[in-house]
Structure formats: structure tokens, C-alpha cells
Design goal:
Radius of gyration: 26 Å
CATH class of the largest domain: Alpha Beta
Oligomer: single chain
CATH superfamily of the largest domain: Vaccinia Virus protein VP39
Shape: globular
Length: 647
């Protein structure tokens, strides 16, 4: 096995423990091994994260056992409080960290403990070549620990497909399920108090998760259940195996997680994968983990808010209808959840990227070498349709802030031949200083400027290094037909850079996951089944690596809007659909052929059906009897005025 595909993973205790962190770690080990990686696991003894002498000695022995020059990934729980041990090995090894959430974010710590953990973890992360985190929220939190965005990659957990939950048998009351170790952060005590306030309603509830992580707290929760006279209705089931857990999910009516904070919240995704409605909090990365159409979120620690939400979901017909509405949202969202295979590929890519990132956060020399290219004639063909399809109303609030702040500097990422420049420049006040970034020198050479011509600097380079560097110096960061090609980790870094620079963001024409080819108002295909096959295959193809890791693909605009909003921006996300008709024949032909190729690559067994669909489309184009709709979105994100740095 090549050294380039070897990993030494250091974790606290055994990966057999059932926590979100250990399940994530174990899943990634399995995925890496399936991809041909050799993974060596070191299980540490001692107490973590507040490391004792045994933990310190165990980490030191594990690092000493790793061959010189090897790639090492240390779970943040094991290394965060031991920066001196990590520092002693950093010159000999390529050390990376895996952070599920910052140590100081744990619930129940005193101010002094939070300060101590924060200082220790900051020191430990400073000597790591890179950090993998499990959510975009945690990626943003790394900035508070002094970590530059170039050193961070977010690799979200995957989800295992599961059967739909059936609910309780017969006429039994609604069954609530909460999964997680009984620790202060999980908020079981808050949930008990909230349930006590809706005791008049029919329900039962199971708490499934370890009672041994924090025995004193688990005992306090058990005592609280007894004090509220809920022992007959709340079961503290403890830890269980996969089959028993699956049975709990299957017989449940509502999934409830009252956590004060989550670094992601994999159990929320597991509930959605089973079509369960979710009631949770807005703590940490939870809003990122659960689709809005499937969940009700309340503020963490707010007993009355949680009780009111429970009442709304459990009260008679209206509660049943609301649960059914959320369950339908979960079932719609479940097929879109990424699997562990996709997460595993992203994890491997992150390891390879970060292993060649210096501690200053500079990307490895080859970053971006394989970014997807587009022919200049295709870009010219789509430009007039792009321009007429944009959500033109977004330029008004952008223009107002541009004038108000006296801005001038614009970074255009993935600029191609300058279509975005030609659309946007006439709509903004002068002076304008454009930095155009693209990896293709031929496209940069063909950039044509509008009249009057603004100041333009062309930069040949990849977006991971040169693009983010340009964004750091810009007042406005923009791009067209870009976001659906990039990875979540890259997008998270971009949002972080924009926020740090107080820069606005305007990204046009992100593919939104739906297109339709029609002839005489009828979709092509046998009952539209062929069209649906092609659409599903194209959308799957969109998720492949376009040079940034696993692509966001459909829904990228919504993800970006969520991240910018969470970063404190005012956001607008508006449709910018292509609507093609006779007269757009060349573009329509190119689209159909591109869809055919992408779909056939994804579904080679269905190549005959796909080719037949494409042939019908091409005939309709020749006859001038067609229409095409392709859904896109345009995003504008403006920083709060009080955070803007003057030009």
C-alpha cells in the first residue's frame, strides 16, 4: 500500500462506544478501508477531555509508535487538552485534528473551565497541519480558536438508508423518542420538565442512550422523572444494539432532542431518514443537520417553549396533522441526505488536501489542477440567456450599499470569459476594480470588458488559494454558475472569508435541481418516466467532484444562503430560471447532449432509455416544437451595515 494512502488514527477509548463521535470515526475508518486505505487505530487509555496522567502518557506512547513522516489524525477529544504532547511530535509527523465540536462548548463548564479548555485547544490546533470538522457551524467556530479557513475542511456525516417509521401499534398514544447519552449537554432534564407540563396529553417517551457517561447526571435525571411522577411514561432505556435502536425508531411518532448544543446531531438525520417528524433546538449545528420542512426548533434550555411545541404536536387532531406534515417533509428530504459513501470520499479528499497544507493554512501546490473547465463557445452561447434570466431586482439593494459604503473592489471567482463582469459592471457605480480569477488561461485571454471599461486584473489560479485571497481583499465577492460545483467545505471557507472582510456576496445562476423538456406542453418520455430518470441521474452526477471535493450540486444556493444568514448577513435568494424556446436552438441542443452524457455516465445500464429520450428532444428542437425550463437561484448576501469596514 502506498504511503499516500495510509492513516494513523488516534482516538480516546474504543470505537465500539456508542456516541455520535465514535460512530462517525468508525464509519470513516470503514469507508477509507473500502477505498483501499490502510488505517491503523490507536485506542488511548485515561480520562478525556480533561486529561489525566494516564491519558497524557497514552497519547505520548501512541505518537511515538507512529513511523516518522506518517499522516496522523487525532480525535479532538484526545488532543485538545494536551498541546505540549502534540507539539513534541509535530516536527516528525503530519498531524491533523478531527474536531466534532470545541471542548469549551460543552454544557456545564464553569467560565474558568471554558477559558482553560479554549486556551489549550487553541494551542493544540495551532501545531496541526489541518483540521477536519463535522459541520459548517464548527468550521466557523474554528476561527474563534485562531485557525485560518485554509486549514479547515468540513466533512458532514452520512446517513444510512432506513425503513419508514410505522409508529406505535394499535391505539397506543404517540410514542416519543430521544436518542443520546444522558449527559448535561443533551438536555434530558429540560425535556423531563417540558413533558411534565403536558402530562394531560396522551404520550409516552423513551430515552435511549448511555447512562454511564455521566452517572451522577443520569441519576439526577432519573430522580427528576420520579419527582415529576412520570416513571410510568418515561423509560430510561440505556444503551442498546442496532436492532433494538431500529425498533425504537420504527415504533415512534415523534423524535425529540433537547440538546443545548450539537456539533452536528447525527441522530436527527437518522430520524429524518426514517420519515419521523423532529422537535429539537437551535443549539450549535442542529439547524444545519435537520431540514426545515421536517422539524420544529426552539431555543435551547427554554422549558416553556419546548412544552408549548410539544403541546402543539400532541394535541388531538391538530397535533396529529402537524406531525403528519413534518413527517411528509422528512420523507421528501430523506432521499436527498448524503450517504456514508459520499461522506467517505469527501473525508479522503480532505485528508489528502490537508496533509499538504502548511500550518500557515496555505493550500498544497496542486490545488485546483483538476477543476472542471468549460469551452469558450459554450459560455458565449449561454451568456445572453444567463443575462435575461437573472433576478434583476437583486441589483437594487446591492447598488444602494455599494454607493453608501463607497465600495470599489470586486472579486469575480471562476470568471470564464467575463460574462459576470459584463452583466454587473454597468449596474454599479464607478470606480470599479475587478479581480478576475480563473484557472483557464485561454478563457482569461478572451475576457471582453464592457464600456466604460473598469480597471481589471486577471489572475490565473485555483479558487482554493487565489480565489479566497482575492475575496479577502474585496468589497464584493461574486460568481456565476459556480456554487453548485463547489464543496461544502470550500463554501464554508468562502463565507468565513467574506465575513472577516465584511464583504458582500452575489452569486448568480446556481442550478437548483430541476429541469424540464417539453413538446407541445407535454414532457418527453413514456409518462415522463424517461425524463425523470435523466433528471435523477443528472442530479446525481452534479454531486461528483468538480475540483473542490464532493460538489454541493442541486440546492447549493439554499445552502449558501443558510450559511451567510447564520454569519449575520441579510440575504435574498430568488429564482433565475432559464426558459428556452425556438430561437434558443443551439443552447437547447448543447443542454440535451450534456444531460445525455452525464446521465449515461451515472446510469450506464439505462443508456438505451437515456439515448431515446435525448433523440426525442433533438427531433423536437429541429422541428421548433419545444420548450425547456432549467431552475436556478440567485443569491445576494449583504453584511450588516454596522460591521462594514469603510472602503
Amino acid at each position: 500500500m502506498s504511503d499516500s494512502f495510509e492513516l494513523h488514527l488516534i482516538v480516546p477509548g474504543s470505537l465500539a462506544r456508542r456516541t455520535g463521535g465514535t460512530i462517525y470515526d468508525a464509519r470513516m475508518v470503514a469507508q477509507l478501508r473500502q477505498q483501499g486505505w490502510q488505517v491503523v487505530i490507536y485506542n488511548l487509555d485515561g480520562r478525556f477531555p480533561d486529561a489525566d496522567a494516564t491519558a497524557r502518557e497514552s497519547l505520548g506512547r501512541a505518537l511515538a509508535a507512529v513511523p516518522t513522516g506518517a499522516r496522523v489524525l487525532i480525535d479532538g477529544l484526545a488532543m485538545g487538552a494536551l498541546p505540549d504532547v502534540v507539539r513534541a511530535a509535530c516536527d516528525r509527523l503530519q498531524i491533523l485534528a478531527l474536531v466534532h465540536h470545541p471542548l469549551a462548548d460543552e454544557t456545564g463548564l464553569s467560565a474558568a473551565e471554558r477559558q482553560r479548555f479554549s486556551a489549550l485547544e487553541r494551542a493544540a490546533l495551532a501545531v496541526c497541519e489541518g483540521i477536519i470538522v463535522t459541520s459548517e457551524f464548527t468550521a466557523l467556530r474554528m476561527r474563534a480558536l485562531g485557525v485560518t479557513s485554509g486549514k479547515v475542511r468540513a466533512v458532514l456525516p452520512g446517513t444510512e438508508p432506513a425503513r419508514w417509521a410505522a409508529g406505535p401499534e394499535g391505539d397506543r398514544p404517540p410514542q416519543l423518542l430521544s436518542v443520546g447519552a444522558v449527559t448535561p449537554r443533551k438536555g434530558h432534564d429540560v425535556l423531563v420538565e417540558a413533558l411534565s407540563r403536558v402530562r394531560q396529553l396522551p404520550w409516552s417517551c423513551a430515552f435511549v442512550g448511555s447512562l454511564s457517561h455521566d452517572p451522577d447526571h443520569a441519576a439526577a435525571v432519573r430522580d427528576l422523572v420520579a419527582e415529576r411522577d412520570l416513571e410510568a411514561r418515561i423509560e430510561l432505556a440505556g444503551d442498546c444494539d442496532d436492532d433494538v435502536l431500529d425498533a425504537h425508531y420504527h415504533s415512534s411518532s415523534l423524535f425529540v432532542l433537547a440538546s443545548h448544543y450539537e456539533g452536528f446531531g447525527m441522530v436527527l438525520r437518522e430520524a429524518v431518514a426514517r420519515g419521523l417528524p423532529v422537535l429539537s433546538t437551535s443549539g450549535g449545528a442542529i439547524p444545519e443537520a435537520v431540514p426545515t420542512e421536517a422539524a420544529v426548533l426552539v431555543r435551547p434550555g427554554e422549558v416553556q417553549e419546548l412544552a408549548e411545541a410539544l403541546a402543539a404536536l400532541l394535541s388531538g387532531r391538530s397535533g396529529s396533522a402537524r406531525r403528519a406534515e413534518l413527517a411528509a417533509g422528512a420523507r421528501r428530504a430523506a432521499p436527498r441526505l448524503p450517504g456514508w459513501d459520499q461522506a467517505g470520499r469527501a473525508f479522503a479528499e480532505a485528508l489528502l488536501e490537508l496533509s499538504s497544507v502548511g500550518t500557515d493554512g496555505s493550500p498544497h501546490p496542486g490545488a485546483g489542477d483538476h477543476v472542471e473547465s468549460f469551452a469558450a463557445d459554450w459560455l458565449a452561447l449561454r451568456e445572453p440567456v444567463d443575462h435575461r434570466s437573472r433576478a434583476h431586482e437583486l441589483t437594487a439593494p446591492l447598488r444602494a450599499m455599494w454607493r453608501q459604503q463607497g465600495w470599489s473592489r470586486i472579486a469575480d471567482l471562476g470568471c470564464g470569459t467575463g460574462s459576470n463582469l459584463r452583466y454587473l459592471s454597468p449596474r454599479l457605480a464607478s470606480p470599479q476594480e475587478w479581480t478576475l480569477v480563473d484557472h483557464d488561461p485561454e478563457l482569461l485571454a478572451r475576457v471582453a470588458c464592457p464600456d466604460p471599461e473598469p480597471q481589471v486584473t486577471r489572475v490565473r489560479g485555483d479558487l482554493a488559494e487565489h480565489g479566497l485571497a482575492a475575496a479577502e481583499a474585496a468589497h464584493l465577492v461574486t460568481g456565476s454558475a459556480l456554487l453548485d460545483l463547489v464543496s461544502e467545505s470550500w463554501l464554508c471557507r468562502l463565507v468565513d472569508v467574506c465575513r472577516g472582510a465584511s464583504a458582500a456576496a452575489y452569486f448568480a445562476l446556481s442550478y437548483d435541481g430541476e429541469f424540464r423538456f417539453s413538446i407541445a406542453d407535454q414532457s418527453v418520455g413514456d409518462g415522463d418516466s424517461d425524463g425523470a430518470l435523466v433528471l435523477a441521474a443528472v442530479n446525481s452526477h452534479q454531486l461528483g467532484d468538480k475540483g473542490f471535493g464532493a460538489a454541493l450540486g442541486p440546492g447549493a444556493g439554499r445552502r449558501a444562503e443558510q450559511l451567510f444568514r447564520r454569519a449575520g448577513y441579510r440575504t435574498w435568494l430568488l429564482p433565475s430560471c432559464w426558459r428556452l424556446a425556438p430561437g434558443d436552438d443551439d443552447l437547447a441542443r448543447g443542454l440535451v447532449e450534456g444531460w445525455r452524457q452525464a446521465a449515461s455516465e451515472q446510469r450506464p445500464a439505462s443508456a438505451g432509455r437515456i439515448d431515446g429520450w435525448a433523440e426525442c428532444c433533438q427531433i423536437a428542437i429541429e422541428r421548433g416544437e419545444f420548450s425547456v425550463t432549467v431552475r436556478h437561484t440567485d443569491l445576494l448576501a449583504l453584511p450588516a451595515a454596522e460591521t462594514v469596514r469603510r472602503a
